[in-house]
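Q: Entry one of two.
A:
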Amino acid sequence: MAVLAVGSRVAEDLRDGLRGDRAVSAARRLRGLLEADAVGLADLRDPPVWSGRPAEDAAELVAHVRRDGHRAGRAGRVLALPLQVRGELAGVLVVVGDVRAAAARQAARWVGEALVRGRLESSAGAAEAAELRALRAEISPHFVYNALTTIGAFVGSDPDRARDLIGDFAEYTRHNLARRGEYTTVAGEFLAIEAYLALARAVLGDRLRVQVRIAPEVLPVAVPFLALQPLVENAVQHGVERVEGGGSVQVSGEAQGTDCVIAVEDDGPGMDPELARAVLAGVGSGSGLALANVDRRLRAVYGPQYGLVIETAEGAGTRIVVRVPRFQPGVVAS
């Protein structure tokens, strides 16, 4: 068990690769595990980072492994082993001392697996950031134009209303364009939702009726940025606005055991359930892509049992349900 614990900590140390700030810590753990005089970790360009006194023959051995790519090199009590990531050379492990070759090879495999995990996590993080950027780019120019035109119309006739709407517009754009942190709270997301709905009501007038009911116990729940707002925008733009006489949007939130459940419902035209499934599968464009984006991000953060559920039928409106855990390790609002 102690060996597995060390392997796990080495993986954590190498989350940012062989040149990360904690690579020396990984070398120190491997040195203790192997009972080696020294351990070095090298990437494909720079000299190794060391725990213990560097070996004089290390530079030549590291160069040999980098050239060959697959075979280890040995000089006396110094052993250099290739670190493989998906069959390709990613670096070199150098072990100095009376260490069994089999143990050193096992350590090299651990390091290779840690590097694979780090790259996967880095790729997942980059993909999530790209999807969030895509959602932020979804701000409708049509909605912005209509909101600003409406605000302008109120400047002369009702300056107090215009001032309030300018504040709502500022909150709406601030939330959509925020660059700090990955997570907010349900309360933070609803500040932007309320700002959006205030602008939408100003634009649509009596055509839009809204009811929002959120239980206080779910307000502190941490959620990814823009996990809820696009659902409300979808209900207004593809539900209410497509009905000549307008319609209603109902938003509710409550705790169900250890989960937080948010529902966004409109009485618009609805859609074929097969189309709804295609939307969540990412087949489509426009609002469909936004919903699929939110669903993927939620499942990536919380697991496949969470995300969006779309309940709809043609002529029966649409209800989108979001289920996330109330507490999730690593998910903390900034």
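Q: Entry two of two.
A:
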Amino acid sequence: MRGLTVSGAQENPAGAGDSAGRVWTRRSALGLAAAALLPLGVSVAGLGGAPTARAAFDPSGMDFWVDSSMGPIKSRVFRAADGNTNRVVYALDGMRARDDLNGWEIETNAAQTLTTANINVVMPVGGMSSFYADWTSPSTFLGIPAGTLSGTGSGAAQALAGGPGKTSAYKWETFLSQDLPAALRDRLGFSSTRNGVVGLSMSGSSALVLAAYYPAQFSYAASLSGALNLSMSGMRDAVRVAMLDAGGYNIDALAKAKDAKWQHIDPYTFAPKLKANNTRLFISAGSGLPSSADAINASTIQGMGIEAIALVGTKSFQARFNSLGGKNVVYDFPPVGVHNWKNWESEMNRLVPDMSANIG
């Protein structure tokens, strides 16, 4: 299979070792970030999910509401074709997550693919710019309370508006590891052990967070074009701009740069936990080159640069995991693929057999 390697023994971009990987990524990151961001101003839609192109609703799904410290949170649940309750996968959204439907439902046929493979699918709805983390505080700027201004549209105009993550702090890690699995277990009979989790872009690192810190719940984690080295030079600044652009969120409300919480969500830092847990991983990033099916437009050009950033971070994580002796992983680096749903749907289709063999 093209571009796909098992156990992390190949594809080391720096030749060998953790220190070499650090040097390579630090030299590359700022240049790639500039290449991705500057030609199109500061619009960085691709860093957390491609701009929404259409709205799709799958009537086979059900709305599943769960109370939380953030208020009632909706997930969309799709039942496995054979009716089992022990094979469960969480599909996480990107940075521009909407409050009505999850991007996987809007933009792809992932639910049908997974349910046909006898996998129950849980798609949490919401969490724009959240990294599915427990934030330190609500997102505000200059101490001005959220809701002071009711901005319209997206981006910086929303910085002082109220809403999710602003009126109260995001607590997504708690929701995904406690509130949601308990409700799925009690109300639908779903297993809360040996689940799978798939994340793309923003949520690629989130999927690995869940597997690292909740190994009984998640035996399988996949990152598609994820930000897997948040300590990489220039990365925090890139994420700061992306969060401001995607809903007007303040990264400092998530965690300060030196906080332990920032390290908590950085896969490069917590990689030893994944190795110790022996979690089955699927790690993917495209080359940044468009396929013949990608129209050459501003969105594609932007997606090329941002996928290149994702590839740098993913290769850096690979070098780190290799240096630790991590083995239980499949890497897939397709020769084409930009930061968009077409790429992620293709990777989802590719990982299903591996995920199916490692959950439930």
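A: Comment on entry two: The chain has a mean pLDDT of 86. The two ends are 26 Å apart (CA to CA).
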